[in-house]
Amino acid sequence: MDNSLLEVLEERIETLIRELEALRARARAQAIRIEEQTGDLQAGRQLISRLELESGQYREQLRQLEAQLAAAPDPNLLSALRGRVVSLIERVETLDSEADDSTS
């Protein structure tokens, strides 16, 4: 197995985990702005709850992928992991886009 490919995937997973943490912080800030601008406490709380739940699920999945990569998977597993990482990246980007749209 190509160690450089494993290192790239591990780095990407770590980057995604950091991006999810930043997304959660941004969601909290946006929820506060929604509450301040509209006076609707419920809308802001719902946004925070939904984004925290989703980002927490994605973060856990990424951590599981990271653990599998650290266990030196075989090439077939590596291919499957690559597909899962791509899927998670797409979900994270969608979540990030939804967070941006919520304040427009």
What is the total number of structural domains?
1
Helix-strand makeup class: mainly alpha
Beta fraction: under 5%
**H/E element sequence:** HHH
The helicity comes to: over 70%
Major β-sheet profile: none
Topology:
Blueprint: H1 3-38, H2 41-70, H3 75-101
Helix pairs in contact: 1-2, 1-3, 2-3
Describe the overall structure.
The longest helix is centred in the first third of the chain and has 36 residues, at 3-38. The model has no long low-confidence stretch (mean pLDDT 75). By secondary structure, the protein is mostly helical. It has 3 helices and no strands. The protein has one domain (3-99). The chain starts with a helix and ends with a helix. Helix 1 (3-38) runs antiparallel to helix 2. It is elongated, with a radius of gyration of 16 Å.
What can be said about this structure in brief?
Helix content is about 90%, strand content about 0%. It has three helices and no strands.
